[in-house]
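Box 3.1 A note on notation
Throughout this textbook, protein chains are presented in two layers. The first layer is the amino acid sequence; the second is a token string describing backbone geometry. Keep the layers aligned when reading.
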Amino acid sequence: MRFSTALVTALFLLTGTVIAQKEDIEIFEKKDGNKNIVIARNVGKVSYQVNLTIDAKGMDITPGIAVEAIVPAGYMKELATLTPRPGEAWSYGYDVSYSEYVGQAPKETGTPSTKTDAAAKPTAPKPAPQPAPAALSTAPIIVFTQVGCGRCSYVKKEMTAKGIPFEEVDVNSGSPEVNNMWKQLRDGGFTGDNVTMPVVRVNGQLHYNIKDLAGFVNGLNK
């Protein structure tokens, strides 16, 4: 995989999608300011040893150009952080290999992960979610987001810039708000298995598959 400045910008800021690999180990990226973080997600049933080798120019790489990590089944782990050097042109690429880990995986080696179709389109939990607990957030605006979703980052940035208060809920966090979101979607007639992120609840009403993000955020100020 090789990326240039223009490609990374288009990937995360315009489409908000991540290409899902049809393998037990999925490699994707998320943006943190000007940093690019490479993450491995294990959607298989056994632990894997993942090896990442990075070839980059004009960037600082943490922890280094060669990374080895153990990722247990159902977990994801940040492998490396790439930070462009100020004033320098940059590009990077990487090779990934993995093999089944036969030893005992460390107890804390990443973050629990629910497999999704793509970063911008989480799949509804199976079976259908149970009714959410009565104690839910009373925040006027809740923004449901997902790691690696550029559309989500854009909405949060614009709302913050405009001084619009909101509460953020990661759809992979296990929060009861997530089950409640899917229940509201079903009760409202939504029949699909995935929805384009972000989903935004405004005064109890859900807004999803939002096409004009800028127009939507501007409408919240009116």
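Confidence is low (pLDDT under 50) at residues 2-22, 114-119. The domain at 2-112 is CATH 2.60.40 (Immunoglobulin-like).
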